[in-house]
Write a structure and sequence with these properties.
With 193 residues, the chain is α/β, with parallel strands linked by helices. The chain is built from 6 helices and 6 strands; from the N terminus they run βαβααβαβαββα. Bound molecules: ligand FNR. This is NADPH-dependent FMN reductase.
Length: 193
């Protein structure tokens, strides 16, 4: 069957530019033949990680829901804002909760990191910071990343990137990532035979 990709916009904001970037990536993945599950962090409401809460009640529903969506995909794309040159607390908190599950859902999954920001750097420092917990958990973070600068004016009305060069670069990154996932998933299937 087709590859299943979870594409997650990692901001809670209704007008999130990262949600818009996630939608565009989802469209590009569908065009390339993948089966896409598009989501935002708004769907996975969860409290701040608290060891006492975990001991008493286990994982909150939002974390369990995110775990389930991760388990159902072959790979995921995270579109995350950059806060103070690092990972937004919402994103780190979700990673911390989900990382408590066994088997650990982030392990061995391929991931592509993208970001959108009103700045001219496009939130790229946040993505470098995001690699640390994900790689620690064994996620195969794709070497290339994509950051959209001036994101508040970066989209056309139909959700494409205003800059044709950036649009092309995003499509190349997304399709190269998908090819890698496809080759790897096929290889693993051959090994299991
Ligand atoms: C920001 N923002 C920001 N942007 C950036 O490029 N580098 C940064 O270090 C920060 N730091 C930062 C800290 C905090 C606390 C906030 C609230 C915001 C701006 C951020 O990129 C902007 O709000 C984006 O629009 C957030 O992404 P969404 O919500 O549009 O997806």
């Amino acid at each position: 069957g087709p590859l299943r990709l979870l594409v997650l916009g990692a901001s809670l904001r209704t007008g999130s530019t990262n949600a818009r970037l996630a939608s565009l990536v989802a469209r590009m993945l569908s065009d390339a033949g993948a089966q896409v599950d598009l989501a935002t962090m708004r769907e996975f409401d969860m409290p701040l990680y608290d060891g006492d809460m975990e001991t008493a009640h286990g994982l909150p529903d939002g974390a369990l829901a995110l775990r389930e969506r991760l388990e159902r995909c072959d790979a995921f794309v995270l579109s995350s804002p950059e806060y103070n040159a690092s990972v937004p607390g919402v994103v780190k908190n979700a990673i911390d909760w989900v990382s408590r599950v066994r088997p650990q859902p982030f392990k061995s999954k391929h991931a592509l990191l993208v970001s959108a920001s009103p700045s001219l750097v496009g939130g790229n420092r946040g993505l470098w910071a995001l690699r640390v917990p994900l790689e620690h958990l064994g996620t195969r973070v794709y070497p290339d990343m994509f950051s959209l600068p001036a994101a508040h004016k970066g989209f056309t009305e139909d959700g494409q990137l205003s800059d044709a060069g950036l649009q092309e670069r995003l499509r190349e990154t997304v399709t190269a990532f998908l090819s890698l996932v496809e080759a790897d998933v096929r290889y693993v299937c051959l090994q299991r035979r």
